[in-house]
Amino acid sequence: MNKTIxxxxxxxxxxxxxxxxxxxxxxxxxxxxxxxxRCVVITGGxxxxxxxxxxxxxLAGTDxxxxxxxxxxxxxxxxGSTQFRVNCNSAAPKVTLSSTRLALSPTVTAPTGYANxxxxxxxxxxxxxxxxxxxxxxxxxxxxxxxxxxxxxDSLANSANNLTVKAYALNTASGALLMAGNYASVISITxxxx
Length: 194
Known about the structure:
Blueprint: H1 2-21, E1 39-43, E2 45-46, E3 49-50, H2 68-71, E4 80-88, E5 94-99, E6 102-105, E7 114-115, E8 117-127, E9 133-139, E10 148-151, E11 163-171, E12 177-178, E13 182-184, E14 187-192
Parallel strand pairs: 7-12
Antiparallel strand pairs: 1-4, 2-3, 4-11, 5-10, 5-14, 6-8, 6-13, 8-9, 8-11
């Protein structure tokens, strides 16, 4: 009988052991994610590229020289402009801007007193999240300068038409007559998240 009592007590002790060992446990689980810095075209293109046109119309005045409307144009009153929307999720995107000269195409040699190229200022006005506008500009010349590279002072505004590309302050040699034909130029813009 003592053996039975001892075996019963041992079994009873084993059954009670898990309850005595049970304790509360706690843990933490971290949830993480990331957003890659990027710029994307919303209007005026798709994905990572945009394109448009700035039609200046008739370049010459009635006397055959550069139109005074175009030569007298300013950033506030440009010869022409076009708009785009680009979303960038970085604090200060970097803009690179350059342009070719507005040139007669196909190229024809201009005689003395005539012009077959027109220099001008290409500008990008960026509407910023803080409500201001920052202008990045590039001026063409016979020897094209290096591209203008400038970081914006704030994020791009999250709004329609947050970028305006302009052409203004067109110029040729004083009194030069413009050669007849079609003129073309390309403004190149790169916007990088930084």
